[in-house]
């Protein structure tokens, strides 16, 4: 990173920061409903080498694609002005300035092991690495969660993706061997022990290679549907509805909104159950929760796809405790929780099933709960 920075920017970096991608164990499409989620950070991460500039320019370079340096003026940053990957780092600088932080220019060089379009939050990793870099370079002393919310603001307000805050909070606040229990209304989070390996299990991420894109309108439509349902029920958010309220809500709502609401309400309950099991040290007990979560996303929220369903079904047939699509949906990745000795046969079975179905070969990434964003040099 140091050498590449020097080659691209012609000077030494002041530091290097890292921020991870994430997978969500349970609690999908609950974040923008003021609900609960339970992500972990994964070992795949984005690195940012950076140094301040005194001339108000923001110069961005990425090792992926080796395109030219993107050269911007920080006082000219406006939403929609940058449409490439540069929108994420530029958006963070914009969000910091919008929030009144006196930050100026910088040279940045970015490199990443988080696959893009795989539902593993490569954009949140990039935003958080930049936010942490700026926090140190400009001595802002903001806590990790505040940096995460600024990163989300960058994605919403600058890159134009109406996501919730889960991905950025996961990338910023996760710790090793723990899942992050998020309460998106309270704005609070707690570390819950999550170390499947200590109990002879593994968490496997299967990237279906079906590219998901949150900017394409389907995600926004789901969010609008949930918010509309809450309004029709006279609630601030679907978070305020419990499982016992569902029959009454179903009478009041237009039929097409009922399954959306049912997913969010049952999903929040699944997060609570998952947290209780993890606190009791019962990792395998997550299995049925993951299975139910997938069924709910597939049948009620309707955001799975044939490839993700095939991973889940094949993994379960070959002895996984549980499996489900993770992230925004419409492709991306599936998580599989299994005994360590089942991981190889499951991987082979999934790859074989994909070949038989004529799908491109999936990528297998064994993961553990890794640490959140930090300065690494
Ligand atoms: C994407 C969004 C998150 C969250 C998930 C679904 O990852 O960025 O905010 O809504 O989808 O749980």
**Helix-residue proportion:** 25-40%
Strand order of the largest sheet: 5-4-6-3-1-13
- Under the CATH scheme, which architecture of the largest domain would be assigned? 2-Layer Sandwich
What's the end-to-end separation, in Å? 10 Å
Rg over C-alpha atoms, rounded to the nearest angstrom: 21 Å
Let me know the largest β-sheet.
Answer: 6 strands, mixed
What is the total tally of β strands? 13
Helices and strands, in order, run as HEEEEEHEHHHEEEHHHHHEEHEE
Q: If you consult CATH, what is the topology of the largest domain?
A: Ribosomal Protein S5, domain 2
- Shape estimate: globular
The residue ranges in which pLDDT falls below 50 over 5 or more consecutive positions are none
- The helix/strand class is alpha+beta
- Strand % is 15-25%
Tally of contiguous helical segments: 11
The count of domains is 2
Can you give the mean pLDDT? 97
- CATH top-level class of the largest domain: Alpha Beta
Name the bound molecules.
alpha-D-galactopyranose
Outline the secondary-structure elements:
Elements: H1 2-9, E1 15-24, E2 36-37, E3 39-53, E4 57-62, E5 70-73, H2 87-98, E6 105-112, H3 122-137, H4 144-158, H5 166-173, E7 178-183, E8 188-193, E9 201-207, H6 218-232, H7 246-252, H8 258-279, H9 286-301, H10 306-317, E10 322-326, E11 333-339, H11 340-357, E12 363-367, E13 374-375
Parallel strand pairs: 4-6
Antiparallel strand pairs: 1-3, 1-13, 2-7, 3-6, 4-5, 7-8, 9-11, 9-12, 10-11
Helix pairs in contact: 2-3, 2-4, 3-4, 3-5, 4-5, 6-8, 8-9, 10-11
